[in-house]
Amino acid sequence: MGKEMIRLQGVTKRYGNNQVLKGVDLSVMEGEIYGLIGKNGAGKTTIFKILLGLSVYDGGRISIDGGSNEKELREARKGIGFFIGKNFFDYMTARDNLKYYCILKGVKDYSEIDRVLDLVGLEGVNTKYKGFSMGMKQRLGIACALLGNPKILVLDEPVNGLDPQGIAEIRHLLQDINKKHGTTIIISSHILGEVEHTATRFGILNDGIIAREIGSEDLKIENNEINLTIPFSEVEKARNILQENGIHILDESRKGTSLEEYYFNLVGGDTQ
Ligand code: ADP
């Protein structure tokens, strides 16, 4: 890591009287999975549209893959695969929908269709889009973003409306793509818990600015307490030793099961 793939500096955007972005500073390093978190209406999609050149911004600077003038940005944007809303034809299969997007995106190698369908686990599905489950629709959106093997993936709410199993599957998929191809990924969500285990760094969008950017590791370090896990049978002994040495115990709890672990234990499946 080390190269900055995306940088927004002081980006502002207003719709009429609605000042949505008040000076957004954001940076995403190569190979990161960046989680953009913010309430509904916070401006996440607006940031993505500006990044992709689909919406104009009022002020500030953008750089993508080292390029910052219009010509460089146009070139750099060719390396971005994106998924903002599901725009697929109901009466077409996954394959035909992707063929349509290959033409739109100028992807001439149609073997890409099989590659991305395989990646998202939709190979061999011949149902028309209207018969797809929510999870299949999200997967097709990601497959579409992956056409042409982009350097950067921009995914707007890719797990929105999915059940825990679906969220875990998309998480594995994105982590896999990130690991195999070194793809830089930006995902947004209005629910922190949905991307908590997927992203390596987070930006919290609130009141028109990125209120905080933090890495998942720093998040642990920032919490200045350490948890020790010891067998239940040794608790008394450990407590005595700590007290004899003047060490305060700030908290003591018996480890339970996380809701996610509990859920998967009950219904089967995998949280990893
Ligand atoms: P998020 O993706 O975080 O839910 P959006 O970027 O979609 O937020 O929207 C941010 C704000 O901008 C909302 O108040 C929304 O109503 C407004 N907005 C988005 N697009 C437009 C538009 N094309 N015209 C006017 N207002 C818009």
Verbal overview:
By secondary structure, this protein is of the alpha/beta class. Helices cover 36% and strands 23% of the residues. It is built from ten helices and nine strands. Helix 4 (111-119) packs across helix 5. It is globular. The site of adenosine-5'-diphosphate (ADP) has 11 residues, from strand 2 and helix 1.
Structural classification: alpha/beta
Mean pLDDT: 88
Count of individual beta strands: 9
Distance between the termini: 24 Å
Order of helices and strands: EEEHEHEHHHEHEHEEHHH
Going across the biggest sheet, name each strand in turn.
5-6-7-3-8-9
Radius of gyration: 22 Å
Strand content: 15-25%
Task: Point out poorly predicted stretches.
Answer: none
- Helix amount: 25-40%
List each distinct ligand once: adenosine-5'-diphosphate
> Largest sheet, described in full?
6 strands, mixed
Shape: globular
Number of helices: 10
Describe the structure concisely:
This protein has 272 residues and is an alpha/beta fold. 36% of the residues lie in helices and 23% in strands. It binds adenosine-5'-diphosphate.
